[in-house]
Design brief:
Elements lengths: L4 H18 L4 H15 L9 H15 L4 H7 L1 H12 L3
Pfam family, one: YtzH
InterPro entries: YtzH
Organism: Mesobacillus campisalis
Length: about 90
């Protein structure tokens, strides 16, 4: 059963919150973030104000997937992660 956009937004927020709280993550999580963001960005029923946030998350996840030190990448983006979780929470 496919996830609707509310479920996708909540999953996106959960993954970002986990990376923020744990200060670590996996390449698979980064790839999942990319897939979620791509799916959300083509959803016409999504609030367009979330699109810039999604673009930032996409760039973050791509950089993380190809990072030689993913944990450091996550650590250096703690402020961004916190902001994204808060902002995305407004749309979920």
């Amino acid at each position: 059963m496919p996830l609707d956009h509310h479920d996708q937004v909540n999953l996106l927020k959960d993954i970002l919150a986990n990376q923020q709280n744990d200060c670590c993550g996996s390449v698979a999580e980064c790839e999942q973030l990319e897939r979620l963001v791509k799916s959300l960005m083509v959803n016409a029923s999504l609030d367009e104000n979330i699109l810039p946030i999604l673009q930032e998350v996409y760039q973050y996840s791509q950089a993380g997937a190809y990072s030689s030190d993913l944990d450091q990448h996550i650590l250096s983006n703690q402020d961004n992660l916190s902001n994204w979780v808060d902002q995305i929470g407004q749309f979920s």
